[in-house]
Amino acid sequence: MLDLQSNGHSGLIDPTTISGPVPPAFPLSANNLDKVVEYRHNVEGQNSVVARRGLPRGSHICYIDTYIPASVSTWSSIQTSKTTHIEVPSGIVYINHSCVPSIDIEVYPPNSDGTYVNGVCGELRVVADRDLEAGAELTFFYPSTEYISPRPFDCLCGADIGVCIGRQEGAHFLQNDVLGKYFVNKHIKDLIVKRDSEGRAKVSLNWNT
Ligand SMILES: C[S@@+](CC[C@H](N)C(=O)[O-])C[C@H]1O[C@@H](n2cnc3c(N)ncnc32)[C@H](O)[C@@H]1O
User: Fold this and answer.
1) 65: phi then psi, degrees, rounded to nearest 5
2) DSSP alpha helices (H): ranges in 18-175?
3) Which residues pair with 122 in a beta bridge?
4) ipTM of the complex
5) What is the best residue among 67, 153, 165 to mutate for testing ligand 1's pocket, by most ligand atoms within 8 Å of CB?
6) Atom of ligand 1 nearest to the CA of 76
7) What is the pLDDT along the chain (209 residues), one digit of tens a residue?
8) Between β-strands 96-97 and 139-140, what pairing exists: parallel, antiparallel or unpaired?
């Protein structure tokens, strides 16, 4: 775990505030990514992360052991439980969203004191049904970790109409048949169950009034 005071997240530049490429703020050695991935700029001038070599479907990429615990969700954070988030000062922060993701990010919930078992709060894996070829972009499905994204965006992943979700604003805004097509973390599943039960309660209340 990194200390926010001594390291900070200050080198990270919000990609929506710039008009051209800016160098990534973090070395790929953090979270042991340097052997497997490299940085690229995508067509929109944003940073992205691509595979340095081919990786078989389902294979382990890295554990998330470099992180800063965060109590609020930001454009760059990853949600690890119903109430907790992490900032990731490593190449992981430059992994874009796609509606046809090439990797899954499985997060581990924190202990009650906010720490994570063995200081590891998640794992990156190649998706289960497709190999990742050298040079292919690493992308994950942001709603698989984020329940409500604080800064929604119109998705430019390029997936076909009917496959691309269009606007990425978090799992809360997606239908279950869409979410059901993806690897989704347990805290998201739990929050969706809560959403649906509250929805039913509200409908029932409306019926009674
Ligand atoms: C954590 S950053 C990802 C890295 C970012 N490309 C960069 O250069 O810093 C998340 C932001 O990247 C952009 N982004 C990621 N995936 C996107 C997508 N599929 N379509 C459009 N924008 C995307 C959005 O602005 C989003 O808020």
Assistant:
1) -120, 5
2) none
3) 107
4) 0.99
5) 153
6) 1
7) 444 333 445 578 787 776 666 788 898 988 889 999 999 986 667 899 999 999 999 999 999 999 999 989 999 999 999 999 999 999 999 999 999 999 999 999 999 999 999 999 999 999 999 999 999 999 999 999 999 999 999 999 999 999 999 999 999 999 999 999 999 999 999 999 999 999 765 544 443 33
8) parallel
Q: What CATH number corresponds to the domain at position 128?
A: 2.170.270.10
Does residue 10 lie in a domain region?
Answer: no
Write out the residue range of the structural domain in which residue 98 sits. 15-208
> Domain count of the chain?
1
Task: For the chain, give the number of residues.
Answer: 209
Task: Name every protein residue with a CB atom under 6 angstroms from any ligand 1 atom.
Answer: 15-16, 46-48, 75-76, 93-94, 96-98, 151, 153, 155-157
Token digits for 136? 């292919």
Residue 76 lies in a domain: yes
